[in-house]
Amino acid sequence: MPLDQPPLETLPQWGHWLETPELMVAIIPPGHLEANIRSPLNLVVTSFGETRGIAAFNADRLQPYQALPGGFDIVPQGSTYTSVEDASCFVVFGYSQSFLQRIVQVEAEGQTIELEPGQIPKTHWGLSAALAMQEFFDNGQTGGAFYLESVATAVLAQIIYRRSSLSGRLKRPPEFLDPNLLKVVLEYIRANLSQELNLNLNQIAATVGFSPYHFARAFKVTTGLSPYQYVLRCRLELAQQLLRNQKRSLAQVAAEAGFGNQSHMTSVFQ
Prior knowledge:
The protein has about 270 residues and is of the alpha+beta class. Helix content is about 40%, strand content about 20%. The chain has 2 domains: about 15-160, Jelly Rolls, CATH 2.60.120; about 180-270, Arc Repressor Mutant, subunit A (Orthogonal Bundle), CATH 1.10.10. The chain contains 9 helices and 10 strands.
């Protein structure tokens, strides 16, 4: 991406792991990197190691740049990012504007959310997120798209709270799910265990009218498990029941329990 040329308006395709109309996650290997883009998405980047160089967030002048695990770079949709850096392995989250608006929809109804370009220094929650991402990729991507979407949603919510047009003006999210709402959620999950496409965080949260982030928080406080962990436990239980029928192959059991493929189910069992 030559720095003496106009910024690219599209993102490179290398490194993509998950891509939907509203969310992209890519893992980029370490190496020398020159970037010059005008982002088509809201980008949030976190490193697995130390990165140094020079960079500019929506500005003309390059400044000394350092990124550490637990810190985040924010490049809002439509803004520019220019850099020359020796980069460690890092993860790029790309969010559509509609995904961003939906994260805190309960609190921000009618208000436009805009991320602020720049960096968030290393924090404990940021380091936990970076470690979770690193373990995901290092351990055979156990959990698949649902896990990745859950982490991506939690990361974006923290960014909105700390570096957006609504920072400092958001209310405290709900702490618990009402028993009747919890029943609706659990029944929906059980009814859709075999439908991998129907069990993502956004769709589960929509059954009770919560934003994905607030639902995930309230569900964990109420049950002691994250939505992803609960779905995984239910799928394991279903797979164990199906395995008692020796007429089914492992591939059939994996598909019926919603694991997507036999390799994923085997990794989870291990």
